[in-house]
Every structure is written in C-alpha cells, then in structure tokens.
C-alpha cells in the first residue's frame, strides 16, 4: 500500500511539472503576442507555485519584463521597483539556482542606478561579493560600489585623479 502512495505522489509531481511547463510556454507565447498583462498573470501563478524548476524561470522572466519596461500601464519607476523585487525574490528564494548571482547583482544595480537607493544597493553589492567573490560580475560589483551615487562628471573626475 505504501508503494501505491509513493507512485501516486510521483505521478502527481510529473503532472504538476508538465502543467507548469505548459503554463510557462503559454506565458512566453503571450509575450510574443505582446499580451503583457496576461503573460504576467501566468508567470506570477508559476512563480507562486514554489516549483524549483519553473518558479525561478518565472521570476527571471517577470524581472526581465519589468526591467525592459514592457508593461506600459505603470511608470518607469514602478517598473524598476518591480524588476528589482523579482530579481531579489529569485535570489532570496532560490540562492542555489544558477541565475541567483546575476539576479542579486541586477537587484543591486537597479537599486543604485534607477531607484537611487544607495544604502540598499551597497548592502546588496556587498552581499553579492561575499557570496560570489569569483563570479564574472564581481569586478563590476566592485566598480559599482566605488562609484555608487556619483554623477557621470564625478566619476570622470575620480578616474582622472587616479591616473
């Protein structure tokens, strides 16, 4: 009898995964048709499922939608805020996922460069460097920390002074 329940459990997992895959494909098709609000609704549903395969993909897709300001019904700052939120959520919920380092970096980048939340960005960049010191974006994180909050003119002056 115990084997039966295990079998039913695994069949349920496979069916759920297949359903999420279908939902993810549907969301991508909606994006291609420029039906952003419908695609977002599908992706939010997938993200909230907690599935270790599809939730991180959905969170990354949501972050990208808002980073690219595809939802024309909200302001640029709201879009940046949502992009940052979804990137950070991907990192927080799935820190072992291959996209987690990039998601944490992008969260910090948006905080610093679009939302002007320098204290939060600094904490996120430092966390990134602590967790992923050898990552390909580590040099960029160090540079972002060096110039955080400075205007382009101030960055140029600082670079000229270093030469």
Describe the structure.
Helix content is 77%, strand content 0%. With 163 residues, it is mostly helical. The protein has a single domain (2-162), classed as Tetratricopeptide repeat domain (Serine Threonine Protein Phosphatase 5, Tetratricopeptide repeat, Alpha Horseshoe). α4 (76-93) packs antiparallel against α5 (100-113). The chain is globular. Residues 3-16 have low confidence and may be disordered.
Mean pLDDT across residues: 90
As a percent range, the share of helical residues equals over 70%
Round the Cα radius of gyration to an integer and report it: 19 Å
Q: What is the overall silhouette?
A: globular
Beta-strand content: under 5%
Provide the CATH superfamily.
Tetratricopeptide repeat domain
The top-level CATH class is Mainly Alpha
Number of strands: 0
CATH architecture: Alpha Horseshoe
Biggest sheet layout? none
Order of secondary-structure elements: HHHHHHHH
Oligomer: single chain
Termini Cα gap: 75 Å
Number of domains: 1
Number of helices: 8
CATH topology: Serine Threonine Protein Phosphatase 5, Tetratricopeptide repeat
Which helices and strands occur, and which strands form pairs?
Elements (H helix, E strand, L loop, with lengths): L1 H31 L3 H14 L4 H14 L8 H18 L6 H14 L4 H14 L6 H10 L4 H11 L1
Helix pairs in contact: 1-2, 2-3, 3-4, 4-5, 5-6, 6-7
